[in-house]
Amino acid sequence: MVNSLSERIAPIRQQIVEHPLYGSLTELNDLRTFSQVHVFAVWDFMSLLKSLQRNLTCVRVPWIPVGSASTRYLINEIVTGEESDIDPAGNRISHFELYLRAMKELGADTDPIQSVIRSCQTGTPIETALQQAELPEGIYNFCAFTFSLIQTAPIHVQAAVFTFGREDLIPDMFHEMVIRLSEKYPNETHTFRYYLERHIEVDGDHHSQLALQMVEELCGNDPIKWQEATDASVRALELRKGLWDVALNEALAV
Questions:
Q1: Residues 88-97: contacts with CB within 8 Å, 24+ apart?
Q2: How do the residues of the chain divide into helix, strand and coil, expressed in percent and rounded to 5?
Q3: Has this prediction a pTM greater than 0.85?
């Protein structure tokens, strides 16, 4: 059934991989602009990941077994890599915090994402925090969809969006562009290049296979679950394209 899902999402997925955004990223300032949009995807990816962990494992006391040990292993393995990886010096760091460090090194503006996080830290509901940040419509819609899934969608749907609508959508040409810029601006792009290469090494291969196994385990042979997973994945990809549209428009406006 996973093959049917892959076929259904293939057209919108291809639109994202071939998005004109990548061809517009030619200078350091373009990368700054891109990161200011992309960081919201990195952040809400972490939020969706923690929702999966909360629902697929026991995070309460007293501890009580939840679900299958196989699914618990899969999600915990991904969480470990995403939440406590290593930076270039070998120090433990989450991928999101590493991305923020890369943005600061680039000279990108981290205030919009930090303002949302600060609001959440003071107890502001996520929907309100996103609205108060006055984000571009494409960013707001992307994040609002993710958090609506976290609040209301069944876990197999969340797992499908996590697996098929997330961070394996950056093509090789983007990586090649970052390499070219790193040769021209080594000090400003060192951490960003490391993040991207670490992402390809860990997320793009090992984690993607673990996530796929998780979806197959959760959907099983239930055609209704697979249909729900497919519909949500398509919508997530449509919103990712909208996120890239924002990044392209802002890059062209600079």
A1: 88/190, 88/191, 88/194, 94/46, 95/42, 95/46, 95/195, 95/198, 95/199, 95/203, 96/42, 96/43, 96/46
A2: 80, 0, 20
A3: yes
